[in-house]
Prior knowledge:
26% of the residues lie in helices and 16% in strands.
Amino acid sequence: MGYESICAAGDHANTLHWIKNDGEVREGDLILVDAGVEVDSLFTADITRTLPVSGRFSDAQRRVYDAVFAAQETGIAACRPGNKFRDIHAAAIRVIAEHLHAWGLLPDGVSVEDTLDADHGQYHRRWMVHGTSHHLGLDVHDCQLALREDYMDAELTPGMILTVEPGLYFKADDLLVPEELRGIGVRIEDDVVVTEDGCEVLSAGMPRSSADVEAWIARVQAEARR
């Protein structure tokens, strides 16, 4: 293992590092698995998938999942030479803010631009509480002690390997969100290498979209019944 795995069902997924890996797995829950292997070269992977226990997402779960997927797609598109490392988060978090605004979860009168204001906004961060990306290599959070100008403000160059991992987390007791969203925690994380003209998703073999995830689980369940 490249790091302590996070296996969290139901509301436990809303605790970012549920490394206890305990709790009941109930029909209708989502289960979030954040895990990666370290290979012989000592480089490590860092991948997260959020899966419906029953095999299919409920309407509310799908709405949250698809929003996170859209944010991840936008973040991945920002992984290209010439962009700054911080551009990945900026791209993904804008999509998160747009969805939260469309769902009516931001305070009255607060626009997407208002909440994205670094000094006077950030209301969306109640439900997306972490960064979208980190460098990946010999350590699962490689170079995390680098100076800001060498990390957050640095330019992306070919060969850099990064994670892209937006999420949305609605705790079971959060009265600021509709009841159907409470207890839903979703994160999707993939490993990306910056190339000469864009990027390549190294973990592309693992299904990501909600439809592909459901088809994946259906195949696994069918094989288990044989």
